[in-house]
């Protein structure tokens, strides 16, 4: 009980302390023009209100990640709390804030363009591949999981396959209409359902904890040193890939630029980007606690193995809230992946269109990019969920590492405190290299000493290359370089040149 409540309080405190430090370190300019204002196209660049942007960001980044991930992470016991709280404050919140704000300073650019600018042109191709791979995987996951949840609530004749097709139809319509119509109108409603149902489950957990109906686990020395996972899989690095959304997730780096295109003041950045990551951490804390409090480790593992974590979601919702309100809670969970899947496909369309040089200025061009992506995603829905999740998890955290290194280079070139992004980036780099060396989806070396040592050597080599190229770049830059002086939106540059010439 104390760990659960204390963890949530620490997350909130982190927003008001470390979040403020990160904001000051970036050095916002409240009077600066934003892409939403000067590049307005009434499709993707549209000024929207602060609260609307924040809800869109939360629903974009959440999906089933901060629910399914913590449920599976609960198999490690209260250790999950440590990663959620520390990861959210010192890694995930910083990651989301920096990419959102750097994009805001660069015409709403997506991660591949930011990587090209700050890490070099060759990196852009690598980042494009990882970003598109991640988005197609995560968008597919966010079709499969709500389809399973909806199927559990509907008559037997309504199959998962039929629901999947209906979700794709919704995505197709929503992906090709302006962002303020696709998201700005319905997301506040989705957000209200999510917030109310999440608070209801959290409140019932606390109530049952006080009455003794359920025991909410507390962090202890034993829980830090023991690994209770039924399969015996190691805490390091697996927990960082099991719980990604809710602590640190590269998927967020594909979503923040979309909201940077609708933001009208840099002062909103801490609330919209860092704050919504903290909110996602609270969601993760609630669902991790529910999974640990209501089920023992073996029962939880058996439920997940029998299907997906959607089985656990149903059980938790009905046990804590009853049939009526439990159904509403499940609907609150369903809106998360549907909204994130929609934004994932929208980001994927934009990134692919930018990469192949196809402007999205007509319905024909939008459909030419969108429909093939949906076909690929539909084929992927036939793959086993566990395999999809493993590939998604690794691609997700590789993208997070790239995003943190882009942010580190940005801060380094501008003479700011870059350790706030470099330290979590280097740590996750080591974890991702171990993962791909050890896992069957990679080199299948297992989690022995060889994998850990080889990963350390490879990680140090990558870090050395990163810093040596960064140092050389900084020495060659002149004070007027756009890498140091942030690029203003194109129309703003043209306006200023016209004013100077007249």
From TrEMBL:
Keyword Flavoprotein belongs to the record: no
Segments forming domain CstA N-terminal: 5-205, 208-384
InterPro entries: CstA, CstA_N
Membrane topology: Multi-pass membrane protein
Domain of life: Bacteria
Subcellular localization: Cell membrane
One Gene Ontology term, aspect cellular component: plasma membrane
Protein name: CstA N-terminal domain-containing protein
Upper taxonomic lineage: Bacteria, Bacillati, Bacillota, Bacilli, Lactobacillales
């Amino acid at each position: 009980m104390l760990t659960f409540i204390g963890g949530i309080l620490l997350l909130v405190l982190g927003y008001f302390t470390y979040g403020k430090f990160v904001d000051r370190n970036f050095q916002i300019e409240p009077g600066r023009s934003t892409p939403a204002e000067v590049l307005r196209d009434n499709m993707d660049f549209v000024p929207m209100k602060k609260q609307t942007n924040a809800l869109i960001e939360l629903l974009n980044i959440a999906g089933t990640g901060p629910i399914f991930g913590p449920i599976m992470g609960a198999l490690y016991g209260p250790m999950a709390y440590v990663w959620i709280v520390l990861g959210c404050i010192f890694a995930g919140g910083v990651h989301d804030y920096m990419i959102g704000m750097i994009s805001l300073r660069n015409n709403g650019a997506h991660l591949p363009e930011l990587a090209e600018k700050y890490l070099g042109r060759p990196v852009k191709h690598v980042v494009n591949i990882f970003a598109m791979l991640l988005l197609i995987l995560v968008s597919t996951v966010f079709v499969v999981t709500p389809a399973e949840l909806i199927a559990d609530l509907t008559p037997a004749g309504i199959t998962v396959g039929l629901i999947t097709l209906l979700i794709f139809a919704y995505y197709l319509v929503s992906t090709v209409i302006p962002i303020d119509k696709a998201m700005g109108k319905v997301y506040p409603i989705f957000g209200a359902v999510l917030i109310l149902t999440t608070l209801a489950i959290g409140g019932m957990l606390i109530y049952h904890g006080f009455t003794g109906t359920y025991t909410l686990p507390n962090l202890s020395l034993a829980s830090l040193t023991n690994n209770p996972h039924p399969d015996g899989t190691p805490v390091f690095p697996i927990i960082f890939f099991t719980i990604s959304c809710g602590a640190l997730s590269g998927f967020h780096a594909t979503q923040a630029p979309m909201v940077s295109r609708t933001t009208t003041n840099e002062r909103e950045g801490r609330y919209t980007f860092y704050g919504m990551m903290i909110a996602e951490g609270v969601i993760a804390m609630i669902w991790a606690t529910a999974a640990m409090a209501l089920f023992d480790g073996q029962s939880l593992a058996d439920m997940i193995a029998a299907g997906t974590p959607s089985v656990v979601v149903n059980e938790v919702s009905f046990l804590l809230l009853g049939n009526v309100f439990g159904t509403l809670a499940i609907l609150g969970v369903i809106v998360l992946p549907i909204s994130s899947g929609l934004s994932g496909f929208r980001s994927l369309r934009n990134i692919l269109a930018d990469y192949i040089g196809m402007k999205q200025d007509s319905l024909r061009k939008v459909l030419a990019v969108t429909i093939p992506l949906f076909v690929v995603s539909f084929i992927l829905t036939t793959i086993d969920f566990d395999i999809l999740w493993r590939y998604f998890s690794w691609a997700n955290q590789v993208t997070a590492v790239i995003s943190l290194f882009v942010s580190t280079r940005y801060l380094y070139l501008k003479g700011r405190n870059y350790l706030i992004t470099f330290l979590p980036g280097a740590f996750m780099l080591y974890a991702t290299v171990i993962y791909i060396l050890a896992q069957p989806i990679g080199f299948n070396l297992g989690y022995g000493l060889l994998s850990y040592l080889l990963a350390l050597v490879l990680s140090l080599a990558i870090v050395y290359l990163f810093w040596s190229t960064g140092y050389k770049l900084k020495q060659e830059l002149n004070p007027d370089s756009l890498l140091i002086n942030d690029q203003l939106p194109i129309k703003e540059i043209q306006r200023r040149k016209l004013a100077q010439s007249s």
